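Archive transcription. Copying these from loose printouts into the bound notebook so they stop getting lost. Printout 1 of 2:
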Amino acid sequence: MRNVDYFYRLMSRLYNRNIGSRVRVCMVIIISHFSLLIPHSFAQVGEYRTDFAIGFNGGYSMSSIAFIPKVPQGQLGGLTAGFSARYTCEKYFKSICAVVGEVNVTQMGWKEDILDRNDQPVVLHTDETQTLNYARTLTYVQIPLLARMGWGRERKGLQGFFQVGPQVGFLLGESTDANFDVHDPAFNPAVDKEGHFSTAYKYANSRVSHTVAQDSMAVENTFDYGITAAAGVEFSHPKLGHFIVEGRYYYGLGNIYGSSKRDFFARSNMGNIIIKFTYLFDIVRTKNSKIK
């Protein structure tokens, strides 16, 4: 109980401090994430486990970026794959407690919806058979560390689970897929001293959004961090291993561009949804014939 009291006192201090709301959320979730592990460091309450499993994962990612000023977008599809490890430490009543770590390579980024006032795609002025298309793919190495709670069978059968925790990412590279030159004045909504668009700009009366600064800007902050949460189903077999299907959501707390008053974007944080499959096989298994 002393650990729980300490945790809530710490939460109250963080909440009352004058810090940014997104940083506050990050600190609260990270501390609550690791507070789940504190009791196990001092006393064993439930049935202990020492299961350790490793394997690989892969899936499909759908991502976008929350720009302010707003940039109309759809979801950019991409792939994700990597290595997974899980340590199961305890069964507390009916809850199976574990820690999950991964190292993944994931394609993220944004895909713009370049629309007119009728919500229709804007036609390319040099080729009326095409519409304006722009997408940026950012490839990251992502490292999540998740606290996992499961309910169901451990060795043979189905188990549902929920997991949450912090995630960091490191940008490996970026690529652009566009059918127009972002540096061409015909696509640049520059304004004169009187606030009128340049005569070279061809889309003043067709595009709803004229926010295009992001199209020609390289990513400034290559380190990303945030919170990820997932829920899914696992099927286990003592000889075949563990087969896992899950849905995962990541909310970035960092921005890919500068966000000071002198920067163009006040906000540019990542968000993505991942559907993934994981296969794990046991390296260490608790010797207990009662475990089902």
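Printout 2 of 2:
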Amino acid sequence: MIAGKTVVYTSGTFDMLHANHIKMIEYARSLGDILIVGVNTDELVMSYKSQPIIPFEERIALVKALKFPDIVIPQTSLDHGDKVKKLNFDVFVVGDDWAGKYDYLKEKGVSVVYFPYGRGVSSSELKSRIYERYSSLKKTADSHFPNDVDVGKANDDGEKLRLGGGKLIAA
């Protein structure tokens, strides 16, 4: 507590910011008077999973633009023991995909809430859908042209090739 106000801390990568991120941050806001949001740096994220799609500076700017947080800070470690003293938070909120990971904070007098994302959107699912869509579009695009023709280059007679009526013709 700070001046009798309940301080809540939540954190995450917030890559490809989506509705479930907003729900968790809004929920965290409802649990106290001051909400601090930690945004994982790219270096931290890459220490336990693949590099975020959205760079850190853009992710932190997006979270700062939300109406719910009072303070937004970089998060450089998944160990929050030191943050309890520095930030004086009373409640920690994190997604339920981290269930059990932060129970050690309870020994420091912090209430730990594992927010149930439930069904819906996740950054991993979004990345997968984007990759699948890209692969499908690439396959479709690649099938339009023979592999041995470079559109925009000249043919053996020095004539530029272009598409005409769905076929390659000399320009």
